[in-house]
């Protein structure tokens, strides 16, 4: 699965992730004027927040989405730019009641300008699983979908509990989860992917990376000697060279089957299920021998 959306995700992860020494991510908060009691017009700046609105059953409120959104439900909606370069003018022309934003250094000024010019903005950090659950609840509250948001959060936690239990009977594999190969970008400590790896009983060999979405040296990756490399990269450039390195060539390489593991949103539970299946593939049934030809 190699798409523009995963490239968008890589930019989002690298630019939105806090520095190693940064304090914990802030809770969801508003900028600009207070949104109306009934929100009818919503703009989202990242696909994971579009997914959240859709999962809450509020897709009819969407009037604009990012240029990386691929969900069929929003195929006909105006595009308002990307994570780091949202178009303030385009957003304001859509007259939103609420703009949903994953904050980061790359989009700070245009988002602040939207708020200054009269657009209500809800900032939603999405680094960790806890952030994701808080974002679901905050968006649910803003859109009058509190019960739906609680149900989504409960579903994620129920899946996590089930997978943790299933992982208890498994040998913990050493795993490297890769978002890009040139440079090598990996899931480090504090990322939602790191949490999901632990839920699945895995050992994240990049737990020493120093930040949630880190540029990791090839030397460190080789020394880590992962047993499984999970490929979540958007393009294969540099993959063959990386895969051939000692310490990595012996690993089992697997591709993520969907965006569920990549987007910090309501599909995290499904992403965790997919991750578990990648790490502990079910043994294949012994093929039935073909009948011998008649003599």
TrEMBL record:
Signal peptide range in chain numbering: 1-21
UniProt KW Ubl conjugation keyword: no
Domain of life the protein comes from: Bacteria
Domain Fe/B12 periplasmic-binding stretches: 41-283
Gene3D superfamilies: Nitrogenase molybdenum iron protein domain
PROSITE patterns to which the protein is assigned, alphabetical: FE_B12_PBP
Keywords assigned by UniProt, alphabetized: Signal
InterPro entries: ABC_Transporter_SBP (IPR050902), ABC_transptr_periplasmic_BD (IPR002491), Vit_B12_bind_prot (IPR054828)
Pfam families: Peripla_BP_2
SUPFAM superfamilies for the chain: Helical backbone' metal receptor
Protein name listed in UniProt: Hemin ABC transporter substrate-binding protein
Source organism of this protein record: Melittangium boletus DSM 14713
């Amino acid at each position: 699965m190699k798409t523009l959306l995963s490239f968008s995700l890589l930019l989002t992860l690298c630019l939105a992730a806090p520095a190693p020494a940064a304090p914990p991510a802030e809770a969801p908060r508003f900028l600009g004027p207070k949104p109306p009691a009934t929100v009818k017009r919503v703009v989202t700046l990242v696909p994971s927040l579009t997914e959240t609105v859709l999962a809450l059953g509020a897709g009819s409120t969407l009037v604009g989405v990012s240029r990386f959104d691929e969900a069929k439900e929003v195929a006909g909606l105006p595009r308002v730019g990307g994570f780091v370069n949202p178009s303030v003018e385009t957003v304001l022309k859509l007259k939103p009641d609420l703009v949903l934003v994953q904050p980061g250094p790359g989009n700070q000024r245009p988002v602040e300008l939207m708020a200054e010019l009269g657009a209500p903005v809800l900032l939603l950090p999405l680094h960790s699983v806890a952030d994701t659950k808080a974002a679901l609840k905050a968006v649910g509250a803003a859109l009058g979908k509190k019960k739906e948001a609680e149900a989504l959060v409960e579903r994620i936690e129920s899946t996590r509990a089930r997978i943790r239990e299933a992982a208890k009977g498994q040998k913990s594999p050493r795993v490297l989860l890769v978002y890009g190969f040139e440079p090598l970008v990996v899931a480090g400590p504090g990322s939602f992917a790191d949490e999901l790896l632990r839920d699945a009983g895995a050992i994240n060999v990049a737990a020493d990376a120093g930040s949630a979405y880190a540029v990791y040296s090839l030397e460190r990756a080789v020394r880590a000697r992962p047993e499984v490399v999970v490929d979540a990269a958007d393009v294969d450039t540099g993959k063959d060279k990386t895969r051939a390195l000692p310490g990595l060539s012996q690993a089992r390489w697997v591709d993520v089957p969907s965006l569920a593991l990549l987007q910090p949103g309501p599909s995290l539970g499904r992403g965790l299920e997919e991750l578990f299946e990648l790490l502990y593939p079910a043994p294949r049934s012994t093929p039935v021998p073909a009948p011998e030809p008649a003599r």
